[in-house]
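Q: What residues go here?
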């Protein structure tokens, strides 16, 4: 099985990339957490991989960190989850948030994952709470928070906002939401200046999309 690939990033989308390895283009499915760590296309990148084989498909999944790969494996082994929902879980929640939610039996947070209802969230807790390895338990929710960066110039700021909006809409559609509803929610969040990063935007949008109509 292929465990690691290193090559040139040819194309990247919030849910998949194409990696040129010595002239062979590999398609790897990825989570948003991995997407955010990728360089610009044309640059070299190395990803940990898992090969998933079934009768009608052979899929490669790529991960920027060992923690993401391990969590994917754990999630995929939960009854009724599978690869699609496992990768969606890593897109909807950071590794630290996901681990904390499982440890604390936080079903509300786990239900933010598209396709996960209360029964599935309970199953995640039951099957994974006592199986999380020590180095995952030590993940810090504060990691990467509190860092400030200089504000960009107005034109650059607008360009970044447009890119962020496009990436967020694409990520939500790839998670299974309908474009009209996604565009409505993202537009609302942009007007509220509710996020500045793709991860923050995704989590804010998932909270909005999870609310009953009229709430």
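A:
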């Amino acid at each position: 099985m292929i465990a690691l690939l290193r090559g040139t990033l040819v194309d990247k989308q919030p849910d998949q990339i194409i990696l040129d390895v010595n002239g062979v283009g590999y398609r790897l499915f990825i989570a948003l957490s991995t997407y955010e760590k990728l360089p610009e296309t044309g640059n070299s990148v190395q990803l940990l991989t898992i090969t998933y084989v079934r009768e009608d498909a052979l899929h490669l999944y790529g991960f920027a960190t060992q923690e993401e790969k391990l969590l994917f494996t754990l999630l995929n082994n939960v009854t009724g989850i599978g690869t699609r929902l496992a990768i969606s879980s890593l897109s909807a929640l950071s590794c630290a948030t996901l681990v904390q939610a499982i440890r604390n039996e936080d079903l509300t947070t786990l239900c933010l994952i598209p396709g996960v209802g209360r029964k599935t969230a309970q199953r995640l807790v039951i099957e994974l709470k006592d199986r999380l390895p020590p180095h995952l338990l030590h993940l810090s929710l504060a990691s990467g928070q509190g860092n400030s960066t200089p504000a960009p110039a107005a034109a650059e700021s607008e360009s970044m906002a447009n890119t962020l909006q496009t990436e967020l809409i694409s990520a939500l559609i790839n998670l299974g939401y309908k474009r009209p509803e996604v565009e409505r929610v993202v537009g609302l969040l942009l007007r509220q200046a509710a996020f500045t990063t793709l991860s923050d935007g995704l989590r804010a949008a998932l909270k909005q999309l999870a609310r009953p109509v009229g709430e």
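A: Context that may help when evaluating the design: Confidence is low (pLDDT under 50) at residues 140-157. The chain is about 45% helix and 20% strand.
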